[in-house]
Design a protein that fits this description.
It is built from five helices and 15 strands. The longest helix is centred in the N-terminal third of the chain and has 24 residues. The mean pLDDT is about 95. By secondary structure, it is an alpha+beta fold. The chain is globular and about 65 Å long. It has one domain: Creatine Amidinohydrolase (Alpha-Beta Complex), CATH 3.90.230. The strands form five sheets. Strands 1, 2, 4 and 5 form a four-stranded antiparallel β-sheet that branches. The protein has a three-stranded antiparallel β-sheet with strand order 3-12-11, with no helix packed on it. The chain binds 2-amino-4-trifluoromethylsulfanyl-butyric acid and cobalt (II) ion (2 copies). One cobalt (II) ion binds next to loops.
C-alpha cells in the first residue's frame, strides 16, 4: 500500500492508494486501522508432545467434563497454568517495535514445546497459529502474520498451553515502545476490570456478579465492555460449558461452586463501543468503530472462600489486585 496522504480525497474522488476506485468505495475509514498481513503455513509439533484431540482434525470433541474438578485435575491445572504464565511473561518481554506478530508466534510455539506442552490454539477449530496476537482495535483472536509492530501500538498476547492433559489460558496487553497516556490508562483499567471480576468470585454467588463488577469499573471511565466474547470453563477441554459474561446479565445465574475452573477475560474498549466486526478470516474481531481495545485473562479455580489464580505465575493463592498492593 502507498503512504497515507496528509490531505485525504473527497468521497467520490479517486482513492489515494492508486487503485483507481472511488475513495469512498476503497480506503475510506481504513486509515490508521490494522490491515491483514500474510499468514505463513501452520507450524508442526514434534511427535513426542502429547496433543489434544483436535490437533489432527481441527474439531474438539463434545465437552462432557464436569464443572467441578477433582483435586487431581486441579493439581495438573496448577502445572499447566504456571507454564502458561511463564510463556506469557517471556513473550511479553519479547515484544518490541520492528518485530512481526509471526515472530511472536514462533517464539511462543517453540517455548511451549520446550516446556513439554502443545500450543492449544494451533488447529483449534482450524485456527492456524499457536498464539493470538491482537493489535490496537483488534479485540481478540488476531492471527499472527507478517505485520510489523510499530512504536505506539498495543498488543494483546493470548497464550494457552495443553500440558498434562489440561489447558492453562492467560493473556495480557503489552505496550510496543512508547504508547499514549490514553492507551496506558486503557491497559491499566482493563487489568483492574479483570481483578474486580476475580474478586467477585466466591462459592454460592451467581456468576453474573463477575460481569457486574467488571461493568461498574469500566463505566467509571466511559469504557465499553465487549459482549460477544466471554470467559469460559476450562480443564481437559479448552472451552467447557461455563459461561462468564463480562457485563451484567440477569440471566447469567449459574451458582459458583468450590472446585469450578474457569477464565475471566474482559475485553474493554476506549470509546464505550461494545459491538465488534469480523474480518474475512472469520477469526479477527475488531471494534466496530475502530477504537482501541485491551484485554487481560486468568484461569482460576474456586476455593472454599474465594479463588486461586492458576495462571498467576508463582502459584500464588488469592493474590490481591496489584494496584491495591
Ligand atoms: N485463548 C482464547 C480464549 O481465551 C481462545 C483462543 S481460540 C483460538 O478463550 F482458536 F483462537 F486460539
Ligand atoms: Co480464555
Ligand atoms: Co485465552
Amino acid at each position: 500500500m502507498s503512504q497515507i496522504p496528509e490531505v485525504l480525497p473527497a468521497s467520490n474522488d479517486p482513492c489515494w492508494c492508486g487503485s483507481g476506485r472511488k475513495y469512498k468505495r476503497c480506503c475510506k475509514g481504513s486509515e490508521g486501522r490494522i490491515q491483514p498481513g500474510v499468514v505463513s503455513p501452520m507450524r508442526s509439533v514434534p511427535d513426542n508432545i502429547v496433543k489434544p484431540p483436535y490437533a489432527l482434525t481441527g474439531t474438539p470433541p463434545r465437552n462432557s467434563e464436569s464443572r467441578v474438578k477433582s483435586p487431581e485435575v486441579i493439581e495438573r491445572m496448577r502445572v499447566a497454568g504456571a507454564a502458561a504464565a511463564e510463556i506469557l511473561r517471556n513473550a511479553g518481554e519479547f515484544v518490541r517495535p520492528g518485530i512481526t506478530t509471526e515472530e511472536i508466534d514462533i517464539f511462543v510455539h517453540e517455548l511451549t514445546i520446550k516446556m513439554g506442552g502443545y500450543p492449544s490454539p494451533l488447529n483449534y477449530h482450524g485456527y492456524p497459529k499457536s498464539v493470538c496476537t491482537s493489535v490496537n482495535e483488534v479485540i481478540c483472536h488476531g492471527i499472527p502474520d507478517s505485520r510489523v509492530l510499530e512504536d505506539g501500538d498495543i498488543v494483546n498476547l493470548d497464550v494457552t498451553i495443553y500440558l498434562n492433559g489440561v489447558h492453562g489460558d492467560t493473556n495480557a496487553t503489552f505496550a510496543v515502545g512508547n504508547i499514549s497516556d490514553e492507551d496506558k490508562q486503557l491497559i491499566k483499567v482493563t487489568e483492574e476490570c479483570m481483578w474486580h471480576g476475580i474478586e467477585a468470585v466466591k462459592p454460592g454467588v451467581p456468576i453474573n456478579e463477575v460481569g457486574r463488577a467488571i461493568e461498574i469499573h469500566a463505566k467509571k471511565y466511559k469504557y465499553g465492555v465487549v459482549r460477544a466474547f466471554i470467559g469460559h470453563g476450562i480443564g481437559e477441554n479448552f472451552h467447557t460449558d461455563i459461561q462468564v459474561l463480562h457485563y451484567f446479565d440477569p440471566r447469567n445465574t449459574m451458582i459458583i461452586r468450590e472446585g469450578m475452573t474457569f477464565t475471566i477475560e474482559p475485553m474493554i474498549t476506549s470509546s464505550g463501543e461494545w459491538r465488534h466486526k469480523m474480518w474475512d478470516d472469520d477469526w479477527t474481531a475488531v471494534t466496530s468503530d475502530g477504537s482501541r481495545t485491551a484485554q487481560f485473562e486468568h484461569t482460576l479455580v474456586v476455593t472454599a472462600d474465594g479463588v486461586e489464580i492458576l495462571t498467576g505465575g508463582d502459584g500464588a493463592v488469592s493474590p490481591k489486585a496489584p494496584w491495591r498492593r
